[in-house]
Amino acid sequence: MEDRKKLIIDTAKxxxxxxxYSATGLREIADTAGVSIGNIYNYFHNKExxxxxxxxxxxxxDTFPDFGAMINKDFPFNLNEIILAMKVVIDxxxxxxxxxxxxxxxxxxxxxxxxxxxxxxxxxxVYIDKVKNDYAGKSIRPIDYEYPTKVFIIxxxxxxxxxxxLPAAKTDSMNDxxxxxxxxxxxxxxIVAT
Length: 194
What we know:
By secondary structure, this protein is an all-alpha fold.
């Protein structure tokens, strides 16, 4: 029974990602999944409930690596490894992350706000606390880390998603490792010459 529910969710995720929320109907989800409309209603009341299930923040958060373990003795000089890990996760789960933009455009970000809050909460508990306790005033300046953490997460995640969706945003001349090193360099040292 749970296999059928997973099949419905996976099929809907693929269709929403390819066609958008509005252009995908329950009948198409059922036909593509090889189930009846009645089967869908056994698990979900409507299309929005399926979409909300796919956009459950816990599902997206579970795809991220253990950043707490990555904030180690080499931090912040291993920031490129953290950025690279984020890119790998987004590349491997692009359908889910593409849905963030579909949610923003078609559903006014109803689900995206929940996802972003969950990501920021995760970063706050792992990143901010660990940085404050272990690195503030040592290898990094003692500042309020909440704002830069939010900006970092939003910018990096959005950039990687956009570069997968819009070819013009890609940096084709760089491989993933080079790109993560350049982003880490800008984050660590800024763009102003000293």
